[in-house]
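Today's session is about reading a structure prediction critically. Students often jump straight to the picture, but the first step is always the sequence itself: look for stretches that repeat, for charged clusters, for runs of hydrophobic residues. Only then move on to the predicted structure, which in these notes is written as discrete structure tokens rather than atom positions. Here is the chain we will use throughout the hour.
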Amino acid sequence: MGSQILCQYHSGYSDSSYHIFSMIFPTADAVTNSYCLLFIAVVLCLYQRDDMLQYWHIALLCMMGALLGQVKITCFIIALFVLFLIPKAHGCVKKITLALPALTAFVSMWLWRAKTSQISVAPNRVPLEKTHELEGQLLQSSWKIFPLIGRSLFEPMDFDTEKINGQLVNSRRNLQFFTGTEEIQLPLIVMAPVLIAIMMLLIVHMSYKNINKLQVGLIVLIIVLYYVLSCVAMSITWVGNVDVYASGLQNRYFIPVLPLAALLFPNFIRDENINRRVLAISVAALTAFSYIAIAITYVIQWK
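Below is the predicted structure for this chain, in token form.
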């Protein structure tokens, strides 16, 4: 199941200037996203094994958790996904031990945060003193998080006034999922086929998953916390105001939780007699069409 999910999401890879999920965009997020996806894949791989969880598996996850805490402060929350493995752990001791990877990730993140606390994330936008002031505001008035999240979820993207080279950038940053990249906005006919292919794979393969309600609750919690932390981080380090829309959010920031969101797909399919040959041909044809269309848009010198 882990390999299926990762393969489905990595199907968006293409030329370094044209891609589906911005996974290989030339930014530090590429490394961050890749490691987060690797961590999730390892957990899912352990979950689908026939044998039960072993202590050396937990030791491996602790090592990976320590690294996860270093890639990006908001990503440490993904370490909670190790609790997804509780049904695979025999005995109370082993179940409790599963908390160690998450604890390791938190300690790693906290140590890195303490080491870099005197370095401003974006000094040209928000000075370090202002960042600390906003952190204090949120600690004293935690309720401010709720209007911040509400505005960031529902405010129209073209209301944001941030510009680069005289052009508004918020909309194109957040529509990369449907248009290809931030810089190059590809037509719907180019992007839609591969997106449909991904949805077909998700609907079919996610219908065979076997997870309980507690695991679903854990996944929802991780996604919600990840979004909240991302909004808060952008507000205090990029916007400099916790009372407005969290400007600067980009859809590639949320790539680490896409596989988790896929696990929330309901079991649509009950019939075991799925024509997998037709499914494979359809997915291949749709994906090939999008890649050929991407090549055409890349080769032709448009005026």
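Discussion point for the tutorial: Residues 1-25 have pLDDT under 50 and may be disordered.
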